Amino acid sequence: MTELYFGATRLPPEVKLLRSQNEVISEGEVKGLIQAAQLHLEQRPKAAGCAFSAVAASSQCRELAAVYGGLLTLLQAARALPPSRRRAATLTAALRQIRVPDAWHAALVEAMCGPLPPTPAAPDVTAPVHWQLDIVINHSERGRILEPSVGLGIPSSSGETTYLQFPKAQFLRFRQEMAVMQREMESAESKAGIRPS
């Protein structure tokens, strides 16, 4: 069942640590740590820090940061699952298998099954996209040497530029999919009688 979270039978050490923390941390403290982890995953580090500090001020646990790390790892792994596998019964069984304390299951499953944070909006492109071809000459991994990659810089209306880096094969696949999508849009527009402005 650990494959459900981590793709292998080996658990991360911060998750293994959760097994021994049942008597040390109260259920209220666990809920506070889960709330801090959720804020962290929503890209709100200041709010997450405040929530963690509130729990740490009243806790007697010396390994509170490690427990927080374990809960954060569990939430990240659960959010990476497709919605069809984020069911309460499946997640509870997985938590039992990896021996997370039973008292924490309800709060963890509620956080894991909850709605995902909204994805950021796509940048409003106002200027041409800049691209470049990079070739790695020296790298610690031998397989990456002389492997070309394509870098794209996409400017937005706010003046910021978003950079994407693709291996050459992935870029060619991306380019082909974009061409197919453009053809389909043009076909749909011609059938509907819509003319581009």
Commentary on this structure:
Helix content is 50%, strand content 11%. By secondary structure, the protein is mostly helical. The chain has 2 domains: 3-113; 130-192, no CATH class. Strands 1-2-3 form a 3-stranded antiparallel beta sheet. A hairpin with a 5-residue loop joins strand 2 (148-155) and strand 3. It starts with a helix and ends in a 5-residue tail after the last helix.
Structural class: mainly alpha
User: Which strand order does the major sheet show?
Assistant: 1-2-3
| Overall outline | elongated
End-to-end gap: 54 Å
Total of DSSP H or I helical runs spanning 4+ residues: 8
Helix content: 40-55%
Rounded to the nearest angstrom, the radius of gyration is: 23 Å
Taken together, the total number of domains comes to 2
From N to C, what is the helix and strand string? Answer: HHHHHHHEEEH
Ranges where pLDDT stays below 50 over 5 or more residues in a row are: none
Sheet with the most strands, sense and barrel status? 3 strands, antiparallel
Would you report the number of β strands?
3
Which strand-content bin applies to the residues? 5-15%
pLDDT average, as an integer?
76
